[in-house]
């Protein structure tokens, strides 16, 4: 059974939820972090994701669903990241930030307590993502997730 711990922020028809499948772990485990964005009236730009300081991003995925019901539209976009901790202590997954027009929306941060493991430590090479740079339009050029380094 998977239990997710979440933090939800709601503004004017847009909901941003950050959730993880655990709040405590060891160095030889991984945590799944999901950012779910819901909008009732528009397609959404790609958010800016945290740099996941203290973690290595092992994989990431994106899915989206649009539901039309009784004349209303609701769009759900989920970004999932599988993370391996690189150190012990209380690590914070910072918020994802979404800018829609002149409005900025943010998920909550989530703390994960990491302890020494008893098995084999997961220690892949960290992914090197390019720094976020926006064109003059202020919008990302692609729909690929961006990271704050």
Short description:
The protein is mainly beta.
Structure description:
This protein has 149 residues and is mostly beta strands. It has a single domain (5-147), classed as Sandwich (Immunoglobulin-like). Helix content is 0%, strand content 52%. The chain has no helices and twelve strands. The strands form four sheets. The protein has a five-stranded antiparallel β-sheet with strand order 1-2-4-7-6, with no helix packed on it. A three-stranded mixed β-sheet has the order 3-11-8, with no helix packed on it. Strand 6 (55-69) and strand 7 form a beta hairpin. It is elongated and about 55 Å long. The chain starts with a strand and ends with a strand. The model is unreliable at 1-12, 130-135 and 137-143 (pLDDT under 50).
Broad structural category: mainly beta
The helicity comes to under 10%
Oligomer: single chain
The largest β sheet comes out as: 5 strands, antiparallel
- Parts with pLDDT < 50 across at least 5 consecutive residues: 1-12, 130-135, 137-143
Rg (CA only): 16 Å
Which key phrases capture this entry?
Immunoglobulin-like; disordered N terminus; mainly beta; 52% strand; 149 residues; five-stranded antiparallel β-sheet; three-stranded mixed β-sheet
List the helices and strands and how they pair.
Elements lengths: L4 E7 L2 E7 L3 E3 L4 E9 L8 E2 L5 E15 L2 E14 L3 E5 L3 E4 L2 E4 L3 E6 L30 E2 L2
Parallel strand pairs: 3-11, 5-12
Antiparallel strand pairs: 1-2, 2-4, 4-7, 6-7, 8-11, 9-10
